[in-house]
From TrEMBL:
It comes from Paraburkholderia bannensis. The keyword Cell membrane does not apply. The keyword Transferase does not apply. Coiled coil: none annotated. This is 2-haloacid dehalogenase.
Length: 222
């Protein structure tokens, strides 16, 4: 059980709530150019370059995606075409939630104020949030913060907007790299790791591991 009553439950969106299909979409667009092993390598490079692209000064999320694909193509010898890369960016607002999310969020929203802090563009996020099927108190984007997670500036923006402190929230994410490591460093004492199997559990960062959003609701006594 999570023995804590948060002022807000704050969420990562893409990957944690929304079924983030960057790898799958890349396979659809580039799978005819590479064999299975090379395609798996392509997806891994794409994942790594996306993280690298968000670690500096803020840039539009469109540029994050396009630059990541360009660098991946250069690394793997695949011809780069910006129009193809933009198909991935354009697909993002079409993605819906993981199957467990609507039920879990509905249970959590019955008691708590829910907040999203997402590495998203403003023009994308409303479509993804609408598909989650639950009310959110606030939705903040990297575009608004002018910084992407895992940079502290993104979290600091959220806390300033909410007028609260790190110890007031329960932060929920499926990613240590983007969220939970920074949350730990910032003094967010209450953290939940939703194990979506795309990153391993890392107990050092003092998280409550949950297998789904309904499981998180159970941990909070709902």
């Amino acid at each position: 059980m999570i023995d804590f009553e948060p002022k807000y439950i704050t969420f990562d969106c893409y990957g944690t709530l929304t079924n983030f299909q960057m790898g799958e979409t890349a396979r659809q667009l580039y799978g005819d150019k590479l064999d299975a092993a090379k395609m798996a390598e392509f997806v891994e490079f794409f994942r790594g370059y996306r993280l690298d692209e968000v670690l500096g000064a803020w840039k539009p999320y469109r540029d994050v995606v396009v630059n990541s694909i360009r660098r991946t193509c250069e690394r793997t010898g695949v011809p780069f075409d910006e129009a193809t890369a933009l198909k991935i960016y354009d697909a993002v607002p079409t993605w819906g939630p993981h199957a467990d999310v609507p039920e879990g969020l509905a249970r959590l929203a019955s008691k708590y104020k829910l907040v999203i802090l997402s590495n998203a563009a403003d023009e994308q996020i409303d479509s993804n949030v609408a598909k989650l099927g639950a009310p959110f108190h606030k939705v903040y984007t990297a575009q608004q913060a002018q910084a992407y997670k895992p940079l502290r500036k993104a979290f600091e923006y959220m806390f300033d907007q909410l007028d609260c402190n790190p110890e007031d929230v329960l932060h929920v994410s499926s990613s240590f790299r983007y969220d939970l490591m920074t949350a730990y460093d910032m003094g967010i004492k209450h953290k939940a790791f939703v194990n979506r199997a795309h990153e391993p559990l890392t107990p050092y960062y003092q998280v409550n591991e949950v297998k789904s959003l309904p499981h998180l609701a159970e941990q909070l006594g709902l």
